[in-house]
Inverse folding.
């Protein structure tokens, strides 16, 4: 039997798998609450002031798996599954690894030498596999919330620099961001200005752009400042609002794919 008959052609739109990370208080959970019919799997206690449907606070990674299984097998009206947050989920995963190896710290698991973080990846793979099933079987969009950290990035082509990334261990961060269709950085918009200090001296200051502490935006393309990506050809910057993101996704889906240039045209 030839494999040619199984070749898939053209686009096949699927519900998006999105990671949104940012600093505390930027509005990540509120943003997620505006997704289509969301249900939150909460791993941290921070949704009390947000009007949303949510499972009871997960106290273990098994609670998270139980919620994912319920969404897969039960009839329900929800269209988006939200995990809030990934970095607190990571703590639950580390607790499970420590319990499995009967140690008090992830650093000591499986004999130490960073092996505990490698063992944690088996739990992360179970999480992304369960989320993939929800998308494929139930047609649910996936929205994963994380806090941000500043990390030093060793750039092989230039000097090292600091950048924002999801607050996860590097192995887990790589797995989740590669699996996602979009990893978006939520931040405030600033402009940098120089201010006179007197005596011929000046200092550089950052000022917010917009009202209420600065315009809140999503960065959709990676840069030296942050980890970000998207597979939807989104603008490099969007307002931090679900309607703005959906408008970008709709424009992407309606844009015809560009044919590959022929050898004569290259």
């Amino acid at each position: 039997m030839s494999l040619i008959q199984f070749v898939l052609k053209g686009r096949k739109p699927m519900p998006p798998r999105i990671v949104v990370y940012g600093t505390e208080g930027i509005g990540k959970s509120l943003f997620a609450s505006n997704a289509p019919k969301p249900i939150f799997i909460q791993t941290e206690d921070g949704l009390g002031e947000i009007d949303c449907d949510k499972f009871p606070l997960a106290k273990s990674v098994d609670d998270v798996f139980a919620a994912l299984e319920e969404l897969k097998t039960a009839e329900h009206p929800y269209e988006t599954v939200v995990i809030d947050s990934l970095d607190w989920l990571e703590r639950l995963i580390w607790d499970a690894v420590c319990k499995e190896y009967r140690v008090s710290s992830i650093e000591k698991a499986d004999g130490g030498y960073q092996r505990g973080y490698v063992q944690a990846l088996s739990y992360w793979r179970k999480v992304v596999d369960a989320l993939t099933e929800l998308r494929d079987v139930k047609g649910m969009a996936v929205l994963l919330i994380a806090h941000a950290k500043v990390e030093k990035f060793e750039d092989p082509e230039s000097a090292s620099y600091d950048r924002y990334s999801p607050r996860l261990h590097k192995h887990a961060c790589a797995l989740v961001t590669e699996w996602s269709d979009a990893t978006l950085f939520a931040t405030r918009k600033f402009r940098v200005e120089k201010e006179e200090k007197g005596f011929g001296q000046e200092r550089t200051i950052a000022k917010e752009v917009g009202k209420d502490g600065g315009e809140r935006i999503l960065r959709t393309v990676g840069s030296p400042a942050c980890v970000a990506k998207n597979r939807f050809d989104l603008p490099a910057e969007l307002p931090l609002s679900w309607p703005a993101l959906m408008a970008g996704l709709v424009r992407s889906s309606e844009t015809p794919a560009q044919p590959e240039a022929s050898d004569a045209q290259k």
Summary: The chain has one domain: 16-188+217-253.
